[in-house]
């Protein structure tokens, strides 16, 4: 290779250098991160980088990329740098005010949709609530997949609700979702009983939070993660508030940490209104979702 070629910061060279740098700074997916950020700086799809390996990006692209690489090197999650995250095959806006959607939460959406399939087609309007909606992923996926559903999307964070509203508009379901700022169900109007309540509540204990990776602790809202001293407090409150708001036979479906799944199941055994508790495992075989019916 000539000295002139060695000097050239082609796309391939930028990717190789950045991959090595991210690898050393602790990223789990250094090459993917490098490609996503370079595509963002270049304003193209990731796949388009592959046909442009020998191209030298102009100074504006290199400057934008350098800034993204610097922030990623400091630990900022790629999704926050891109302002977007894929969930259930849809693209959602995220910000520092929202949890970054996790793949495990897709199990919750699947379980909720399966439950309606088991109940059979109905033309009746379905009333659903999503408690702790964050970026709105659960509410929006349910509204998109259930055309006769109306969803109340609740969060205690007004900043998260603003992102959820933008996401609902992006996915054209804003007419069937109400956004409500509330501590759990406190401000949800008690007009009619609900068919289903879904929630991915905060469920990390104080001790676990202290041990979380810096990339989570420093960049995602504490309020979205910590569910009280032992992680179960918000869930216990959710169970108390949610079951009475359901139609008889209606279901509360929520995500939780496998670490507290047994204690929450044990708690449910003593809740009079709770019936037919189902525990759903994630792809790693961990207890991840609980579905519980309101007794008839
Ligand atoms: C684990 S995040 C889930 C966000 C989103 N549903 C998801 O699955 O990506 C929990 C959400 O609950 C909200 N939250 C925390 N405590 C709450 C409370 N007491 N009442 C309502 N929302 C709450 C947080 O602001 C956060 O958006």
UniProtKB/TrEMBL annotation:
Organism lineage:
Bacteria, Pseudomonadati, Planctomycetota, Planctomycetia, Pirellulales
Q: What does this protein do?
A: Methylates the class 1 translation termination release factors RF1/PrfA and RF2/PrfB on the glutamine residue of the universally conserved GGQ motif.
NCBIfam families linked to this entry: hemK_fam (TIGR00536), RF_mod_PrmC (TIGR03534)
Q: Which organism is it from?
A: Rosistilla ulvae
Q: Which GO terms describe its molecular function?
A: peptide chain release factor N(5)-glutamine methyltransferase activity
SUPFAM superfamilies for the chain: S-adenosyl-L-methionine-dependent methyltransferases
Write the record's keywords in alphabetical order, separated by commas: Methyltransferase, S-adenosyl-L-methionine, Transferase
Per the database record, which ranges form the Release factor glutamine methyltransferase N-terminal domain? Answer: 14-83
Q: What protein is this chain from?
A: Release factor glutamine methyltransferase
Per its record, the protein catalyses: L-glutaminyl-[peptide chain release factor] + S-adenosyl-L-methionine = N(5)-methyl-L-glutaminyl-[peptide chain release factor] + S-adenosyl-L-homocysteine + H(+)
Q: Where is the Methyltransferase small domain?
A: 124-208
Q: Which family does it belong to?
A: Belongs to the protein N5-glutamine methyltransferase family. PrmC subfamily.
Entry-linked Pfam families: MTS (PF05175), PrmC_N (PF17827)
Write down the EC number: 2.1.1.297
PANTHER family assigned to the protein according to its UniProt record, in alphabetical order: HEMK METHYLTRANSFERASE, MTRF1L RELEASE FACTOR GLUTAMINE METHYLTRANSFERASE
Q: Which domain of life is it from?
A: Bacteria
Q: Which residues bind S-adenosyl-L-methionine?
A: 132-136, 155, 200
GO annotation (BP), single: methylation
């Amino acid at each position: 290779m000539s000295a002139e070629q060695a000097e050239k910061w082609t796309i391939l060279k930028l990717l190789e250098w950045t991959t090595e740098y991210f690898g050393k700074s602790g990223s789990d997916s250094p090459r993917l991160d490098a490609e996503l950020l370079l595509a963002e700086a270049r304003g193209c799809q990731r796949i388009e980088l592959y046909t442009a390996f020998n191209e030298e990006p102009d100074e504006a692209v290199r400057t934008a990329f350098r800034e993204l690489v610097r922030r990623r090197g400091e630990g900022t999650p790629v999704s926050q740098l891109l302002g977007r995250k894929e969930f259930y095959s849809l693209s959602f806006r995220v910000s520092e005010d929202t949890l970054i959607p996790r793949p495990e939460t897709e199990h919750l959406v699947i379980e909720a949709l399966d439950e309606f399939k088991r109940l059979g087609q109905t033309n009746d309007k379905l009333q659903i609530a999503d408690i702790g909606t964050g970026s709105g992923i659960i509410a929006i996926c349910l509204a998109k997949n259930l055309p006769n559903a109306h969803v109340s999307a609740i969060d205690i964070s007004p900043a998260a609700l603003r992102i959820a509203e933008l996401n609902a508009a992006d996915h054209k379901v804003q007419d069937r979702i109400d956004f409500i700022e509330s501590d759990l169900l406190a401000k949800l109007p008690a007009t009619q009983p609900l068919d289903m309540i879904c929630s991915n509540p905060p469920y990390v204990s104080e001790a676990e939070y202290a041990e979380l990776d810096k990339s989570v602790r420093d960049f995602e809202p504490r309020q979205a993660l910590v569910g009280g001293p032992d992680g179960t407090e918000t869930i216990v409150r959710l169970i108390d508030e949610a079951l009475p708001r359901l139609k008889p036979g209606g279901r509360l479906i929520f995500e939780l940490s496998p670490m507290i799944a047994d204690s929450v199941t044990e708690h449910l055994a003593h809740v009079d209104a709770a019936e037919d508790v189902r525990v759903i495992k994630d792809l790693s075989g961990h207890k991840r979702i609980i579905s519980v019916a309101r007794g008839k």
